[in-house]
Amino acid sequence: MTSPPPVPSPSVPSRSVPSPEAAAWERAVGTLGPWLAAVGPRRHADWLQDVSTVLRLGTRDPRDWHTVDQHAGSPSRTPQAPYYPLALVDAHHLNHYLELITRREATVLLTRHCAEYGGPPFHRHSAAALRAAARTVLARFGPGAEFATNQDLLPDEFDDAAFDDEESGAQAADRCRRAFAVNSLTHPTAERDGYLTDMGVVAASETEIGVFWNYFID
């Protein structure tokens, strides 16, 4: 009796070749250039607990997509400051420090924060490119997502358009400076290192939590 031909093994996608969605995410995050861009699973109805876990660097991206942590390996990350430059990231503090915002506001703030305070290569991109990248990043969390920030929003902060497509990066940065007021989560050690404050945007879907953080450094 002739043996049947072997059944081919199912193909396994190469981890070195990201899916189109993962590739678009990585390009968008690279365009924005935040200091921290991380996503973790949502496990609680009160998603502030999950935000705290992600900010504590205690999880990994559920989809294994690109993560940015520009302080990884920093000697300033010690047992006394394990998630330097941040410190006040427990759910109790976040409940008092974060303010719910709309998707439009989240897009504007993520764009502005990265335009003014993001790391390289933020200065190589136009405001329009940054805004498009912010929309791509936040789209991951779906149409029903909730958003929050530690920035105090001024009453007229969003009276005009978020960014004109022709607006320069310098003009975008000037907008951010004129409305700059945040509830800082920065660690005292980081303050001594010149990190004057921090600003971020949180995105929460039914299954995932994303945090995007930048720093004002003197």
Report on this structure.
It is globular, with a radius of gyration of 19 Å. Strands 2-1-6-5-4-3 form a six-stranded antiparallel β-sheet, sandwiched between helices. The protein has 218 residues and is of the alpha+beta class. It is built from seven helices and six strands; from the N terminus they run αβαβαβααβααββ. α1 (20-32) crosses α5, α2 packs across α3 and α4 packs across α6 (169-178).
Radius of gyration: 19 Å
Q: How far from one another are the termini? A: 79 Å
* Global morphology: globular
**Number of E strands:** 6
Going by helix content, strand content and strand pairing, the class is: alpha+beta
Output the number of helix runs.
7
- Low-pLDDT stretches: 1-15, 160-170
* Major sheet: 6 strands, antiparallel
Helix-strand blueprint:
Elements: H1 20-32, E1 36-41, H2 48-55, E2 68-69, H3 91-97, E3 99-101, H4 103-117, H5 127-139, E4 146-149, H6 169-178, H7 188-192, E5 195-204, E6 208-217
Antiparallel strand pairs: 1-2, 1-6, 3-4, 4-5, 5-6
Helix pairs in contact: 1-5, 2-3, 4-5, 4-6
